[in-house]
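If your schedule permits, I should be very grateful for your opinion on a structural question. I have a record of one protein: its chain in single-letter code and its fold written as discrete structure tokens. Would you kindly read the sequence against the tokens and tell me how you understand this chain to fold? Thank you for your consideration; the sequence and its tokens are set out here.


***
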Amino acid sequence: MINIPVRVAATVIDALNGGVVPRIGLPYITVGRDSEINALLYDADTMAEGGSAFRFVVGKYGSGKSFLLQCYRNFLMDRDFVVADADLSPERRLTGTRGQGLATYRELMKSLAVKTRKNGNALVLVLDKWVIAVRDEVEKSYDGEIGSSEFNNAVEKCVRDKALSLCEMTHGYDFAQILVLYYRAFVNGDGELKERILKWFKGEYNLKSEVKRDLGVNIIITDDDWYDYIKLFALFFVGAGYKGFVILIDELVNIYKIPQTVTRQANYEKILTMYNDVLQGKAKYLGIIMSGTLQCVEDNRRGVYSYEALRSRLSDGRFAEKGRRDMLAPVIKLEPLTPEQMLVLSEKLSEIHAVRFNYTPIVTRRDLELFIRTEFGRVGASSSITPREIIRDLINLLNIVMQNPEINVAEILSDGDFSFASADGRDDADDDFAEFTV
């Protein structure tokens, strides 16, 4: 039996049953994505050395894009990176006329996570860690009385010097001013001032007059410049003791769906700006991963490739083809999981389901082999069925068998009333399935 805490098992099964990716427990169910994860971890090593990386992860709905991003998110936090993620939507884009770009920035700041706070809202923890580290650094070389006004002045000078090192970046001076204010609020125990500063960092001020009144500065984070602050945060996080900053942006399809050509192209231009910054070395310690369907990337009429400057940068090289993948290319295309890999995943989920509901597993390996054969053997399914569809069917099957242990699995699978998840695909079955033997 798999050794997994009941709480984690419950989160995994309940999330998958609802069609979403769990935030925890992913190592227990990761199957068949070693090459993709290794490629992304190679990027992490580059970022830790002061470099940067930009990748697109593409695949059909339910193919495991979001799952891969969450796996990568967990790996990064375990390696002392700061991570933030956001799903695009009609209200959250990269740029827009109604502040949709700023809305994405706010979501990223809300989801900010580190190893010791994996569920988000980690900004205050990181800021406090930075202030304490600076104070400890000054304390080691300070000869006077620790905690005196002279000591606090020495710490503030060190804070200011470190903050001003960001001034070479766009908006770096304003960012540095806010950091010094945060130090003063921290030392004086001024919780109200800290909240106002956090509000500024999160991009929640709408008017310059408000921030002038609250903080004495005359600048706010806007829809036009939020990405500049992402680059600043990457440098700041490294100064706070982390390896780098990675943002994960999912659901690119919501840009693809924008009906106005001008607005859609403006978002692709923003992607191009970010892409060029990262690859030209203008951004340091920063990683950007964007995810969407193959169509929303490669469609030459509305997708990312409709913006010629991006198409020419991202298109496959002429030597890449099925079975000969370039995992260092900017676009990572997810290959379907094989029947064998889905069988391994089904075995894992069967055991986790038993832990979740505290019963001795009833479904045998032979039952799972029959289940996988049935799933991939459906008309057209072997070329189009996704892990999400198979997982939904498996949990449905496990639920039924748990509640009705007298029922034979073969009978359930052969029953016309069993509702399989739909698989949108061709009408002909893939002959490759014939190679799957159990």
Notes: The longest helix spans residues 123-141. The CA atoms of residues 108 and 352 lie 31 Å apart. The two ends are 21 Å apart (CA to CA). The first strand starts at residue 52 and ends at 58.
